Amino acid sequence: MNAGETAVLTGGRLEAVFYEFVKELRTFTLKHEISYEEYHRVLEFLAEVGAAGEVPLLMDVFLETMVDEVNNGRRPGTASCLEGPYYIAGAPLLEPPYVLPQRPNEPGEILLFSGNVRSTPGMPLVGATLDLWQADAGGGYSQFNYQTPRYNLRGLLQTDGQGRFEVRTVVPACYEIPKAGPTGKLLAALGRHAFRPAHLHVRLSHEGFEPLTTQLYIAGDPWIDSDVVGAVKPSLVTELRKHDSPADLEAHGLKRPHFTLSYDFALASRAV
Description:
Elements: H1 3-10, H2 13-31, H3 36-51, H4 55-62, H5 64-72, E1 98-99, E2 110-119, E3 129-134, E4 154-158, E5 164-170, E6 175-176, H6 182-189, E7 195-196, E8 199-205, E9 212-218, E10 237-238, E11 241-243, H7 246-252, E12 258-262, E13 265-267
């Protein structure tokens, strides 16, 4: 697609947004009296970001929460949350009973993640699709921190005849975003840490309803109140429950202590 096609497809919006952006940058430059030394350092930084492949990471840290707010802030139903840079399309559609793909002897505590998917009025959504991905117990994502299995702790599943779902996975860990590159160096220069609280990523879809991309966070995480990307929303903070009694182990068909997390999602109807 060339620039001319972009302008046609946007109906003039490209021109309006671009020149407003340039106007704001010029105003900012005058207000802060940006020197040539600072100007050239900015150019070097942007080149470093591009060469390091960190443009998505930089945008994730400093901008994506605002884009999410603009696009989804007034939508009814479960709150949205940024997609982040670690999503990979093409994860396998799993068969019940659902277990996210895992390595042999996958490290970490067992987590049974369950809940319901409903419309905003409360109707169960049968056959809703959940696309899940998460960090492992060491804070790493498949295809980013390690290469195989390709879809480790990633998968698609569907709700049952009552709109319910349950999937076995592991408790995700909090983690630091990459610090060695230009984004991490910028955070260090600003005196900011690079941690994200532990979370689960979920993309939900169902015919006739608006798709939803969100994240679920775990209460008590040490970084819950200072997420480096500022994405935590109170309605998305959930509780982990530990199960270690013989009765609980038998009820869940497991032989060792584990955790459960339950969350109900509500999808908004798509405007006709």
